[in-house]
């Protein structure tokens, strides 16, 4: 099984890197960009028997810091 | 008095922290990240600055899961004293021993310079050697020192007098100018600035030394 985890800063948490990307896009002439949020994608190769609940546990314990980040799990 | 200083792969302030403890009269043991227990009879554990595990995933995230950190958490839960500086502060928030998290600096730049800190409370063993409101000069050296906690948590920190230090001139975007916070029992301090780098004449400033002297004085009396 493969799982893909998307980790993003929560809404309301300032994302200075996303902000910097937005500024850079503006400087390149892309003037219709109103906001940029930057996150990460983590791909997991899982052995047979692994479940989505296991991945959720991994997110809660390590992959995301739920104080500042939210996550979404995609099972392929 | 006995202190332990944790060493992770990528720690770079472990020796500075050990020397600061030693100069204040502590006998210091260095503890490797793969050890699963702290030495018996220590009065305080120091979690030093650096880039533990290369700051992979998030600053302090991997270190927080290491065997020694489980021992540090257990030590704190038993009411033991702990001091986390810079990466050590990030690690203590990742373990949940301290609330909140450290984000990328608002200005996105790594900042390395001496800043003014206001001692926000003198009501803990760490700041007993200062007067509340006193301004001290202590170096910062971080890229991810932007303290964040939700409004309710920040209000709770204020109400419980758990903000130990604030920045005079906020360099990194930290909420409420927070530079360092205390645990609920006031025995764990996490801070981004480096008092161990301002504890010897050769450092160009000694404003951090009072923290180690105050700790030493308290444990000597105990």
TrEMBL record, chain A:
InterPro entries: PurS (IPR003850), PurS-like_sf (IPR036604). It is an enzyme of class 6 (ligase). GO terms for biological process: 'de novo' IMP biosynthetic process. NCBIfam families: phosphoribosylformylglycinamidine synthase subunit PurS, PRK05974.1. Belongs to the PurS family. Part of the FGAM synthase complex composed of 1 PurL, 1 PurQ and 2 PurS subunits. This is Phosphoribosylformylglycinamidine synthase subunit PurS. It comes from Tritonibacter horizontis. The gene is purS.
UniProtKB/TrEMBL annotation, chain B:
CDD domains: GATase1_FGAR_AT. It comes from the Bacteria. It catalyses: L-glutamine + H2O = L-glutamate + NH4(+); N(2)-formyl-N(1)-(5-phospho-beta-D-ribosyl)glycinamide + L-glutamine + ATP + H2O = 2-formamido-N(1)-(5-O-phospho-beta-D-ribosyl)acetamidine + L-glutamate + ADP + phosphate + H(+). Keywords: ATP-binding, Cytoplasm, Glutamine amidotransferase, Hydrolase, Ligase, Nucleotide-binding, Purine biosynthesis. Pfam families: GATase_5 (PF13507). It is found in: Cytoplasm. Its EC number is 6.3.5.3, 3.5.1.2. GO terms for biological process: 'de novo' IMP biosynthetic process. The active site is at residues 86, 194, 196. One of its GO terms (molecular function) is glutaminase activity. One of its GO terms (cellular component) is cytoplasm. PROSITE patterns: GATASE_TYPE_1. Pathway: Purine metabolism; IMP biosynthesis via de novo pathway; 5-amino-1-(5-phospho-D-ribosyl)imidazole from N(2)-formyl-N(1)-(5-phospho-D-ribosyl)glycinamide: step 1/2. Part of the FGAM synthase complex composed of 1 PurL, 1 PurQ and 2 PurS subunits. Part of the phosphoribosylformylglycinamidine synthase complex involved in the purines biosynthetic pathway. Catalyzes the ATP-dependent conversion of formylglycinamide ribonucleotide (FGAR) and glutamine to yield formylglycinamidine ribonucleotide (FGAM) and glutamate. The FGAM synthase complex is composed of three subunits. PurQ produces an ammonia molecule by converting glutamine to glutamate. PurL transfers the ammonia molecule to FGAR to form FGAM in an ATP-dependent manner. This is Phosphoribosylformylglycinamidine synthase subunit PurQ. The lineage of its organism: Bacteria, Pseudomonadati, Pseudomonadota, Alphaproteobacteria, Rhodobacterales. The gene is purQ.
């Amino acid at each position: 099984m493969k799982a893909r985890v998307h980790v993003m800063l929560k809404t309301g948490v300032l994302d200075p890197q996303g902000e910097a990307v937005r500024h850079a896009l503006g400087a390149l002439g892309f003037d219709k960009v109103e906001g940029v949020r930057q996150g990460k994608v983590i791909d997991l190769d899982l052995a047979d028997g692994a479940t989505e609940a296991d991945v959720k546990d991994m997110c809660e314990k390590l992959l995301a810091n739920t104080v500042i980040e939210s996550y979404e799990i995609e099972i392929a | 008095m006995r202190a332990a200083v944790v060493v992770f792969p990528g720690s770079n302030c472990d020796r500075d922290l050990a020397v600061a403890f030693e100069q204040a009269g502590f006998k210091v043991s260095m503890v490797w990240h793969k050890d699963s227990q702290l030495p018996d009879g220590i009065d305080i554990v120091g979690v030093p600055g650096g880039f533990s595990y290369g700051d992979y995933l998030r600053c302090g995230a991997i270190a927080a899961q290491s065997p020694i950190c489980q021992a540090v958490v257990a030590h704190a839960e038993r009411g033991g004293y702990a001091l986390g500086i810079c990466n050590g502060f990030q690690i203590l928030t990742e373990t949940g021993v301290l609330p909140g998290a450290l984000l990328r600096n608002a200005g996105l730049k790594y900042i390395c310079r001496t800043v003014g800190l206001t001692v926000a409370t003198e009501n803990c063993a760490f700041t007993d050697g200062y007067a509340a409101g006193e301004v001290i000069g202590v170096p910062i050296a971080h890229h991810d020192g932007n303290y964040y906690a939700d409004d309710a948590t920040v209000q709770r920190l204020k109400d419980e007098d758990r903000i130990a230090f604030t920045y005079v001139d906020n360099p990194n975007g930290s909420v409420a100018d927070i530079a360092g916070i205390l645990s609920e029992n006031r025995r764990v301090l996490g801070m981004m600035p480096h008092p161990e780098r301002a504890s010897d004449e050769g450092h160009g400033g000694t404003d951090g030394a009072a923290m180690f002297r105050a700790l030493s004085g308290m444990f000597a009396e105990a």
